[in-house]
Amino acid sequence: MSDPVPLTTDHPGQVASATPPAPGRSRHLSDRWLAVAFISPALLLLLAMSVFPLLWALYLSFTDYSATRGGPAHFIWFGNYTAILASAQVHLRALTTLIYVVGAVALQTALGFSIAYLISRRTHGRGLLTTLFLVPMMLSPVVVGLFWRFMLDAQFGVINSMLGSLGLGQVEWLTRQRTALISLIVVDTWQWTPFIMLIALAGLTAVPKYLYEAASIDRASEWFRFRTITLPLVWPLLLIAVLFRAIEAFRLFDLVYILTSGGPGVSTETLSFHVYKVAFLGFNTGTASAYGILMVLVVIVLTQLYLRYLNKLKED
Amino acid sequence: MAVSVDEAVSTGPARDHTPSARRLGGRGRSVLEVALLTVLAVVMLFPVLWMIETSIKENRDVYAIPAKFFGFKVTLDHFKDVFAASGGGRSALSVSFLNSIVVAGVSTALATVLGVPAAWAYSRFSVKAKKDQLFFILSTRFMPPVVVVIPIFLMYRQVGLIDNKLGLILIYTAFNVPFTIWMMKGFVDEVPAEYEDAAMLDGYTRLQAFWKFTLPLLLPGIAATAVFALIFSWNEFVFAIFLTSSDSVRTAPPAIAGLIGGTTVDWGLVAAASVVFALPVLVFAYLVRKHLVAGVTLGAVRR
């Protein structure tokens, strides 16, 4: 794992060996000092603001500490963890999160890749089209959530108004159990389809033209070309985009908070929204910490997967 | 040039050999594809257009049933409400916009100052377990904010950083440093190390070589990276809503979200505030469009 990142790393060593020994060694020492001086401030900040809080959360997760009640924390060891893992409430949230993540990411991938494929086949106006499609992705989840809430409003929302003028019935998008989760998936898809599109487009435009030319000389069918040339070459990059989106969707909080606040009932409560409720409405800090640590474990597994594929892509 | 012209000419006749029926089919397909793209573009852009439309409608038209797409009276009252309070003076929203500028600006500057030298060091020197360090740095960025905010909240309560701009600046800096390091490392890798070696042969120290020769070449990359960090901090919501509460400290995202707290919601005002909030992001995003792929993947994917 610790072998150096390609290309640039071995330069200083080579240079040092090419120079006379005495100055080379002193320069090498000062290089090391410089590296430490330049890297450690950033690492110290990360240790203080990311690692230390997580370690604290780890400690709290073994206690019955409550942020409002105060008082000393009593160790209950794995009590919080067993309570969470056995809780039917948590199982339901996990299922909701799974439906949401799989549904949203699958829709985004299918749509985003299709749009990228269509754009890549155009010769004119590619830049303009790409820019227009990217707008939703750059908006804050707050703006996106608020605005869709307005558009999906059952009474005066524009979506129901359009359905009405088409002669279709009204839908209570955000206030019915089943449609609320679908609405959440649709809104997330609207915002993040451009992300997949952008990365798929980067992959598609990198496919060398001569491959297609060779295939058309061989009179290969369109589908055959897509399956044997386009997909294998774009797939590694697309996989990274999908994993990235899966991690983001798993930790999503703001869109749920604004669009549905987990309701109606608990139908759109994802795991991260439930953690918030346990921590900031129930003030069971110890339980919430254990809950959080379990979520971090899931994120770490997903991140490892992501980094592994990223590494593979860079080595190719 | 000559070669490319030859190629263009040689492919021309080759296409003509294909049966005309197939060509017609190809054209029909092309029309279909353009139509499909247009429909998709309209669907993707409609919410944005609707937001802009709502922000310039009178309240009467905002709540009209059926919805009015055209032929409404244009008013800028909602935009006035975003900046000016009803009794005169500054509105709470405009204060939150100023807070957002301060918090996003300072945290981006700090992240740049901390991140750029670290990226340079990671790119140029052989550091122990470099790959592991870089992966660790990126993985801190993937932590779920809702989870991180619990211990951060307790930590800040101990040191009095709750409801304090400095607290937000610190956490945003910590979230932007990993991004800055990964993004900038890519830019530093593109500048040949030989430039510094040549400068050092001329008698400069390593530090001077970095400052005088490499840094100026990195400036466009630094600018692009800073713009992304600025957008991330500007759009951030989770930390902002949990770590701040008073109007004088709150940034724009929680302030705008706070507009829908009451029993009646002034959607015209929400739309106008959203437009004011989103406009700078779109402008900035357009400026860095060349680096978007790297930017949105936190510097991990470079094409």
Descriptors:
heterodimer, A: 316 residues, mainly alpha, disordered N terminus, B: mainly alpha, MetI-like fold, 2 domains, 14 helices
Shape of chain A: globular
Percent helix range of chain B: over 70%
Fourth-level CATH superfamily of the largest domain in chain B: MetI-like
Main sheet makeup of chain B: none
Membrane topology (chain B): Multi-pass membrane protein
Domain ABC transmembrane type-1 (chain B): 97-288
Region (Disordered) (chain B): 1-23
Transmembrane segments (chain B): 31-52, 97-122, 134-156, 168-188, 209-234, 267-288
Description:
The complex is a heterodimer of chains A (316) and B (303). The longest helix of chain A has 41 residues, at 21-61. Chain A is globular, with a radius of gyration of 25 Å. The relative contact order of chain A is 0.12. Chain A has two domains: 11-61; 79-315, Orthogonal Bundle (MetI-like fold). Chain A has helices spanning 11-18, 21-61, 79-86, 88-120, 126-138, 141-151, 158-165, 177-205, 209-217, 222-250, 254-259, 271-281, 285-315. Chain A has 13 helices and no strands. By secondary structure, chain A is mostly helical. The two termini of chain A are 17 Å apart. The radius of gyration of chain B is 26 Å and the shape is globular. With 303 residues, chain B is mainly alpha-helical. Chain B contains 14 helices and no strands. The relative contact order of chain B is 0.12. In chain B, 74% of the residues lie in helices and 0% in strands. Chain B starts with a helix and ends in a 7-residue tail after the last helix. Chain B folds into two domains: 1-52; 92-296, Orthogonal Bundle (MetI-like fold), CATH 1.10.3720.10. Chain B has helices at 2-16, 20-55, 59-62, 77-83, 92-124, 130-141, 145-159, 165-190, 194-201, 206-235, 238-243, 252-257, 267-287, 292-296. Classes of the chains: A mainly alpha (316), B mainly alpha (303). Chains A and B meet through helix 1, helix 2, helix 4, helix 5 and helix 6 of A and helix 2, helix 5, helix 6, helix 7 and helix 8 of B.
